[in-house]
Amino acid sequence: MFLLSSRFGGSRRRPISGPSAQGSCTTGRLGDMNKDKLKKLPVLKSDEEAEAFVDTADLSEYDLSVFKPVQFEFEKKSAQLNMRLPEALLAAVKEKAKERGIPYTRLIREALEQTVAK
Predict the structure, then answer these.
(1) Could you tell me if 47 and 6 are in contact, meaning their C-beta atoms sit under 8 angstroms apart?
(2) What CA–CA distances, in Å, run from 87 to 48, 69, 97, 98?
């Protein structure tokens, strides 16, 4: 199960366990299929259109190589942390987060999750 979120502001929550779930990139999964024969994804203007498309389309007929890995956060954040860091370290963290297109606090949380998971 997963969270459907849209650039249109709406989202539908569907339960999933764990603090976060790694999205999947389809690059390399096309096997021997010729990309020229694959259909381009249609432009969908609403969540309803997107859901109807996913429910009825055979996604193996579409070029999904444009997708990139994403990470969704599902666990509620119920605790807060306040810490002091050297200014240069915080600047480097913010720059790395900007390169990835995520908030710097999420980058720090990901680093903590990876350390604890080891």
Answers:
(1) yes
(2) 46, 30, 15, 16
Regarding whether 14 and 65 lie in a shared domain, the answer is yes
- Give dist(CA 23, CA 4) in Å, integer: 12
Is there a contact between 107 and 93 (Cβ–Cβ < 8 Å)? yes
* pLDDT tens, residue by residue, 36-63: 788 888 888 999 999 999 899 998 888 8
pTM exceeding 0.85: no
Going 74 to 10 to 64 to 14, the CA torsion angle's sign is: positive
Identify the pLDDT of residue 108. 95
Whether residues 99 and 69 fall in one domain = no
5 and 22 in a single domain? The answer is yes
